[in-house]
Amino acid sequence: MTPSPSPRSDPPAAGPESPVTPVGPVTPARPGELSKPGKRGQPVDAAARPRPDAPGPADSVPSLVLHATDNGVSWITLNRPEAMNAVTWEQRERLIGLLADASADPDVRAVVITATGRGFCAGADLRGSPSAGERVAGDVARMIRGGAQRLITAVLDCEKPVVAAVNGTAAGIGAHLALACDLVLAAESARFIEVFVRRGLVPDGGGAYLLPRLIGPQRAKELMFFGDAVPAAEAARWGLVNRVVPDGELAKTAREWAERLAAGPTRALALTKQLVNASLDTDRGTAFTAEAAAQEINMTTADAQEGVSSFVERRTPTYRGR
To answer: CB–CB of 78/91 below 8 Å?
Structure first.
């Protein structure tokens, strides 16, 4: 369970008159349009503006998590700006599904996760969760395994490189969603908050797994023990994010990074991601064995053969993700 940030110390949620600034291609589609990959600039999912209240049966989940495939990049955009993009369980399931689709679709070669408005993700919105009745021992652990942990696992296990374009506050599970991505771009106005301690809760969504691997145990404990907001510039100094850019340049930089990744050798990048992630939890011998196996698999791909041929022929390689 990931609470939203404390209202007394965090900016108010974006309201109907607050600016909504999409980072990626999130042009609304006509109601009923098919949700399938489109050509460059073509909308994919319906994007009706959500109502200011919590989502209910009449709300379209695709409108609350926008999706478009543009130039080989799957753009996934949280779209509840009035709630600082606090994630409902329906949105979580859609995120997990879109990441699985990206892994399986050969035309998708990179993923960007971002949001509209002033917040990236303010945590989990539990108001829309289905009622489970009387709680018994084991219910909470099952809920965490089937919810927050599944979401973070979907990012870590996605077979395409995933870029987080953090446009504002990332708190609780929202911070972990960003930090689970392979590369993290942050706008200057972004900040990261381990909000759990403010509610007397233990971090979920893999926070105690991710943070020590990114910044070491002491820094991780500092963030989790105090729950202080970490501005983007400080997050970059600590190694939580790759780069901080002016707010107005976040979309441009995210597109540049994602399209560079999309033009790369897709399977080699997937295998590299697996090796790096696995190396944090294993010994040297196991890591070396995995490296050799990854090389064996990758050398069967057309992109690897193209890379070698282009080197011999002294030309720029053209990778096709095969």
So the answer is: yes
Query: Which residue has tokens 């993009």?
Result: 85
Quick: pLDDT tens for 150-207: 999 999 999 999 999 999 999 999 999 999 999 999 999 999 999 999 988 899 999 9
Report d(CA 240, CA 148) in Å as an integer: 20
pLDDT at 138 over 70: yes
Whether the CB-CB separation of 71 and 111 falls below 8 Å is answered with no
Element (H, E) at 115: strand 110-115
The secondary element (H helix, E strand) that includes residue 69 is: strand 65-70
From its phi and psi, is residue 290 left (phi > 0), alpha (psi between -120 and 50) or beta?
alpha
Q: Where are the alpha helices (DSSP H) in 54-88?
A: 61-64
| Alpha-carbon dihedral sign for residues 275, 278, 280, 281 | negative
Give 225-231 contacts, CB < 8 A, sequence gap 24+: 225/197, 226/197, 227/193, 227/194, 227/195, 227/196, 227/197, 227/198, 228/193, 229/9, 229/10, 229/169, 229/191, 229/192, 229/193, 230/191, 230/192, 230/193, 231/190, 231/191
Compute the average pLDDT of residues 264-283. Answer: 94
Report which of 127, 117, 129 is spatially closest to residue 187, judged by C-alpha positions.
Answer: 117
The token pair that represents 20 in the structure block: 């909504």
170 bridge partner residues: 121, 192
Percent of the chain scoring above 70 in pLDDT: 79
Q: What is the pTM of this model?
A: 0.80
pLDDT at residue 21 above 70?
Answer: no
- Whether 130 has a pLDDT exceeding 80, the answer reads no
Kindly report the CA angle at 72 between 98 and 146, in degrees rounded to 5? 15
